[in-house]
Every structure is written in structure tokens, then in C-alpha cells.
Design brief:
The chain contains 16 helices and five strands. With about 350 residues, the protein is α/β, with parallel strands linked by helices. It starts with 18 loop residues before the first helix and ends with a helix.
Amino acid sequence: MPDPVQITPKNNYFLLGQEEAEKALLEAYNSNKLHNSWLISGVKGIGKATLAYRFARFLLDEKRRVFAPAATLATSPDSRSNLLISSNSHPDFKVIERDFIETDRKKVLKAIKDGSAMDEDELRNLKKSAFIRIDDVRGINEFFSRKSSDDGWRAVVIDSIDDMNSASANALLKILEEPPAKSILMLISHNIGQLLPTIRSRCTKLVLKPLADNTVASLLRRYRSDLDENTIKGLAKIAGGSIGKALNYADCGALERYGRLSDIIYAGDRFKLQDVLDWTEEATVSEESFDLAAELVLKFCSDHILESRNIEETARAWEEAVRILRQVNGLNMDKKQALINIIANLCKIM
């Protein structure tokens, strides 16, 4: 079976479940007093970047060169403007995100120069820097200083502002103080509480809600038509209102792993040691696999806390799991043993 098509904000024209946020942006535009800076926040994978791209496409559409009230943010995928955005070549659209580390950046540039496409494995192994570079943020000033094509809008999406360090965040502040006319800056945040108060105060805030389970299920049917209905419903239930997470779970077998984890814990003191060893062995084959295992363990705690015989004890077990997992990352502890300890503790409680 061929690999599933990767859905990205750049190639996705379909947004479901965020109608309230779309309406807010449309009303702001129709008022003809659109604020220049928007902070779009919410948990990962619920459509924040897709919404930002959708609004950027709307503003950069040829129809928006002269103001006229609109009834929808929808635009044609085949329009000249959208084709330019999809190919990263629109002169009035800019995306700021973490770049590749220097060595991998050179690999990408060489591949582009040589005209040779990198295969899936090569692309998957490329590493990105820890933060958005300050030079990239400063480049927004240069971008906004240029005259837009046909006196239209200019749009910048920062995905995500959480990836900025103090230097790049302070550079952004200066841009937010005096944004030019007919320009819009859309900042995406997965954790708005960690942002500088001065950045939050300069933006119009748009908080996106997690998607309903039936919305996640509808999107899974659209993007993963090969999945059976039981799998779709199971993924929607454990995805926490995030279609991004549900798609990732579908591609890495998370539902089956979550089911096995649940069986082990609900067996209580009758759990089979070999089942625990097999589960933790699979969890530690790679960094990505361990991150998923840690996520599933914490997901189990949050989902089943009300079902336990002692809610306070289960809450303490969740806190202990968080503490152990932080120590694994900070002190380079044995990952397999850490997971065994967490699971054994949950088996006693549940």
C-alpha cells in the first residue's frame, strides 16, 4: 500500500471544526478595520496553521486588491495566487519557522542546486534547529519594506512563535510595534502561557478549541479512507480533539499500543511481566517511539483518573509519571526501567 499523502497547511484547503474562528476573521475583515497582528493559539493539530494559511490565501487573492465585504474565506486552489503560495514563490507571502541545522541545510541547498529530489528517508532524517533564528525574524522587516505586488496585502505566518528564543522574540516585538498598512502577521502558538506578555498584548487573540470526536472521525475518513470504522472511532477517542495527533497515531500504530497498555494496567496485580517487557522494549527502539510511549502513558492517566478507586492516588501517580519522564530527559536515565516503574505503579492503583 502506498504511503499516505502528507496533509500540510500549505496543501490543505479544507478546514473543519473551526467555523467560529473563521467567522471572527471574516467579520474583522468585513469591518474594514482588520488588526495587523493575530495570535492564533490552541493545542497542536487542531487547524491553527491551516486557518492561518486559509486567511492568508483569502487576503492575497486577486479579489482582495480592492476592499469589498466577503461571505467566505474560501478561495480556489487553482488561482494564480494560491499556486504561487503552494510553490513557496508568492512575493507577498512569507512563512517563518525553524530552519534545518547548518549541515542539513547545506544538503537541502545542494539538492536544489543539483536538481535532484531527496527521497523520503533523507527528508525524514533532516534535523531542524532548536529555535527560529533571529536573522529570519529580522527578515520580516525587509519583507514588509518592499512594495507589495499590485498594491495588495502582505502576509507573514510564524509557525510557531513558541520556537523563538528571547533574542528572536524581542526582535519580533519591534515589528509588532509599528506594522505597515495592508500587512498581517499571524503568530501560531501551542502554549500561549509561555509567551512574553508584551507580545500577547500587541496581538488580537484567537483561541481555537479542540475538535469534537465526531469531527476528528470525519476528518480521518477524509484523509485515511483505508481505515476501518472501529479504528477511526478508537483514534478519535484517544486523539484529544487533535486531527494532527490522530493522523500521526494512525501512521505509527498508536491505537494498538494504547490498547495493549490498557490491558496490562487493568490486569492489576495479575499483569504478565512478559507483556510489560514487550511493550517497553518496543517503546525504546527509537527516540520517536519513546516519546509516543510517554505520551500514551500520560494519556491513559488523564483519561482514566475518574475511573480509579482512588482519584487522589491516581492523580499522584500521574504527577509521579510526569516527574520520572522529566528525569529521563534531564538526567539520561534508563528509559525502559522508567516506563516499567510507571506502569507497575499504575497497575497497583487501577
